[in-house]
Amino acid sequence: MNMAKRTFKNTTSRERQVGRPNIDGPARVAVIIETSHSFGRELFRGIARFIQENERWSVFFVERSLSEGVPKWLRKWSGHGIITRVGTPDIVDFLADKDIAIVDLNQRLYDLGVPGISNDHAAIGQMGAEHLLQRGFSQFGFVGHNGLFWSDARRDAFMQQVEEAGGHCDVYSYGSNAPRRFHDRTWELEMDRIVRWVTQLPKPVGIMACDDFRGLQLIEACAIARIDIPQQVAVLGVGNDSIACDLAGPPLSSILLNAFQMGYDAASLLNRLMRGEKVDCAERLLPPLDVVTRQSTDVMAVGDPLVSKAMQFIQKHACDGIGVPDVLRHVLVSRTVLQERFRSSLERTIHDMILEVKMKRVKELLVQTELPLLDICGRTAFKHPEYLCTVFKKHIGLTPTDFRKQHGQKPQRWFQIN
């Protein structure tokens, strides 16, 4: 990834260096990352890719969830390096006096001089706000876990972006600050509060959840309250856990995080530390990639019913090759009338909105698949790859090839774990 696009939480010049280990054979590396969520599994893919391309390591890990503390096996484990995403405080005390190469992926060990990489939570909140603002909402909500730094950072950035655009945001402020509570009856006990909260919100409203599983809870609350999604409430999650998002009813739109790159960069940092190099401890923040739009936000919240009807048609058929005349036939009004109402409601033309929907789909296919450009043209109603490249570069600022290199996720290949 282009380092120029990264921001830094702290620009201190502190560096970390550990004594170069006497490595006889493959370096022994412990990876303490959750396997229960797709984000953790994508981190593993990034680490695996680095190993394939650079160094052969002997990697030790076991299945675990994000809420687990320091694993018991680590107390007896002996090796050369650790990549950790442990989120509980005990990891700090355990690693405080360890003279070993460590890379932190959960913003816990910065005070120990341990280099870290994390998601840019402010950028995540901003992207969520922009996605819902683009759909014409003026009323917004946020559901998070109060007191957890990553959730609070996403909330604050979301609210700031919304308020700067003239919108209003209500925040769900009940409940514990611990996601692990969803493992017991607390999900059901808290549901009544969320139902009451979402019921009293002015409609239509666009709501961002701090993660996908909070988004699932909100969708269930809307079902209980018989609130239509996305017509009355649009719901956006974070993490793009494909199983959770696709099982939601309706499927949940979600912000795609760059876990693959985080894993790759973490392995690269750890390798440098194990070689005895000095590493800058300024925390590296990775911005999110994009919003994967599913049914839960596939709507335009506009007061003009004619524009709303036209936008629903555009969102459904833009990639089928429709043009402005097709939209006019669907809504049965003149071009002049509909263009004027589009400009008044959305500050865009009918053609602009058709192209925006198509560009969104092209980006999704570039990031989420390995389809060649010719196939992407066929799926998005562009007649020629050359024309697609020209339009894409004009609107996105990159060629499709460069966009895929920067944001696409490379396929996993087999590698040896001992």
What proportion of the residues form beta strands (DSSP E)?
5-15%
Output the CATH homologous superfamily of the largest domain.
Response regulator
Helix vs. strand class = alpha/beta
**Largest sheet report:** 6 strands, mixed
| Number of extended strands | 15
Number of helices: 15
Overall radius of gyration = 23 Å
Q: Give the fraction of residues assigned to helices.
A: 40-55%
Overall average residue pLDDT: 85
| CATH-defined topology of the largest domain | Rossmann fold
Which second-level CATH architecture of the largest domain applies? 3-Layer(aba) Sandwich
Give the overall silhouette. Answer: globular
CATH class of the largest domain: Alpha Beta
Q: Would you list the SSEs in sequence order as H and E?
A: EEEHEEHEEHEHEHEHEHEHEEEHHHHHHH
Uncertain spans: 1-13, 410-418
Number of domains: 3
Spatial sequence of strands, sheet with the most strands: 9-8-10-11-12-15
- Span from first to last CA? 29 Å
Give an account of the 3D structure.
The structure is a single chain. The protein contains 15 helices and 15 strands. It has 418 residues and is of the alpha/beta class. The protein folds into three domains: 3-119 and 258-287, Response regulator (Rossmann fold); 121-257 and 292-297, Response regulator (Rossmann fold); 305-407, Arc Repressor Mutant, subunit A (Orthogonal Bundle). The protein has a six-stranded mixed sheet with strand order 9-8-10-11-12-15, with helices on both faces.
